[in-house]
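#onboarding

Welcome to the new folks! Below is a worked example of what a typical request in this channel looks like: someone posts a single protein sequence, and someone else replies with the predicted structure as tokens. Don't worry about understanding the tokens yet, we'll cover that in week two.

Example request:
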Amino acid sequence: MERKKEDPEVTARLQEECRSRGWNQKRLGEELEISRTFASQVWNGSVPLGPKNLRKLAELGLDLNWLISGKRMMGDFSQDQIDKVYKELDQLRFYNKQLERLIKEIGRNDDDMREGRKGPENTPIDAGENR
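Example response:
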């Protein structure tokens, strides 16, 4: 039975990524926590990467979509640009929560007005009253 090999294009992209990071076969083995012999086999494509090593590569920041398909998930965005987008998303989430809180508060005030409850100064709330 013939041993399964890695797709040559995947192997070429893996080598390209390793070289761009300044890694050789030995360093690849260290990063993946595999033996030097197995790292050589992975480097040359004589064995498939396997799920465990793919997961480890993803944890190391390698774009697995690019590795497997040759298509970048993030396009040509830099890590700084991606971090900026995440920061802006966090700010939007914060403001969204603040708006939700204010909307609930307005709803409670409207309910108080409809039911004729007294306001903060212990005066009746009148919807037509000028404040």
